[in-house]
Amino acid sequence: MKKTIHLFFLVIALSIVSCGKKESQHKNTGIDETAVAVQLVAVQTIEYSRSVISSGLISTETESKLSFKVNGIISKIAVREGDAVREGQLLASLDLTEIKAQVAQAQNNLTKAQRDLSRGQRLLKDSAATVEQVQNLQTAFDVARENFRIASFNYKFSEIRANHTGKIIKKFVNEGELIGAGTPVLLLNSAAKNDWIVKIGLPDVDWVRIKKGDKAKITTDAYPNEPMEGELNSINEGADPMNGLYQAEVQIIPGNKKLATGLFAKVEIFPSTQIKLARVPVESIVDGQGKNAFVFVVNTDHQSVRKVPVMVSFLEGKYAYLSQHPDSLKEVVTGGSGFLTENSTIVINP
After folding, report:
1. For residue 331, what is the enclosing H or E element?
2. Whole-number mean pLDDT of the chain?
3. 176-192 per-position pLDDT tens digit
């Protein structure tokens, strides 16, 4: 029993001595067990041009809403949606009963006015009519002639003919309906010219980065793995008051692909103008709020850190691109930055 007690106290004594030695060793080496292990990464400055991504509907550069010049009852619509038509082809016409009557009436008025003018001129020669009377007859003749021209013009545009070769995209009305002047009857695109475009809207931050002629890539659900090439061919200088976006058109090079008006397309534009940006790993960014954030940098003693404000332009992949930062920013803390404060002690890992 006495041997057991002696052995127990001996073990305790050895443990105390061992702990004392370890504590003495830590004091001798000067290692701070509270120090945070970190890694440093050099700040890279590169010339970069971030792509602009938007989406829109495919259409043709020329789309025409065709309508009649005058009111009337639709007598015939000779095409259906999806039909291919050629330039000058008859597409629709009105009932001409009333329009022909108006032309005949104008013709009769013109004939009468011409006859009255001729009689007045003869009477003027015989001094049986005054100059003023003949002048009035001349005015009446001129008015009747212009009325006949108007009636003839309306008669000409009482039918709709294709103004270019393409396809009928939409039919808005049917035969037998009473339609007003200028009301759309058919929507015709210029698919035969293969001038397909995508109309997109861009916010101001993207609008300032692109210019006419920039290359683009167009992807559709119809051809998910076959992107098409394109080019930015127009940019509006004013924003749409409804949504605040700037409208732009991207010309598509479809190749042998079959396209149709209304297809949804994703557009990626590659700006030709590049800017210099600083690039750091995303994990080095701390305390971000909007575009404002901070990074940690190591002080000259290599044992402490401080926060430096930066402005993040955008994030892409594993990098953050900085639009503003101090000129002295050469290296940033990456590994372990999430555990740091400005009062932290650090150990730099190689």
Report:
1. strand 331-333
2. 84
3. 999 999 999 999 987 76
**pTM for the complete prediction?**
0.59
Query: Mutual orientation of helices 131-156 and 97-125 as an angle, nearest 10°?
Result: 160
The answer to whether 167 and 260 are in contact (CB under 8 A) is no
Alpha-carbon separation of residue 174 from 42, 155, 181 (angstroms): 71, 20, 15
Tens of pLDDT, residue by residue over 302-348, are: 888 888 899 888 888 888 888 778 878 888 888 877 778 888 888 88
pLDDT at 33: 64
Torsion of CA 27, 30, 31, 33, to 10 degrees: 50
Q: How far apart are CA 195 and CA 190, in angstroms?
A: 7
Long-range contacts of 194-197 (CB under 8 A, 24+ apart): 194/254, 195/60, 195/61, 195/62, 195/251, 196/58, 196/59, 196/60, 196/61, 196/251, 196/252, 196/254, 196/259, 197/58, 197/59, 197/60, 197/61, 197/233, 197/249, 197/250, 197/251, 197/252
Give me the mean pLDDT over the 265-293 stretch.
Answer: 87
Phi/psi at 233 (5° precision): -110, -10
Q: Are 218 and 234 a contacting pair, CB within 8 Å?
A: no
Cα 159 from Cα 70, distance rounded (Å): 10
Using alpha carbons, select from 145, 187, 176 the residue that is nearest to residue 60. Answer: 187
Q: Which residue has the tokens 């002080």?
A: 299
Residues in Cβ contact with 346 at an 8 Å cutoff, skipping those fewer than 6 apart? 35, 36, 37, 38, 298, 303, 304, 305, 333, 336, 340
pLDDT above 60 for 137: yes
Domains and CATH numbers, the chain: 36-46+275-348 (2.40.420.20), 54-61+190-270 (2.40.30.170), 97-157 (1.10.287.470)
Task: State the average pLDDT over residues 26-50.
Answer: 72
Q: In terms of Cα–Cα distance, which of 219, 153, 179 is closest to 65?
A: 179
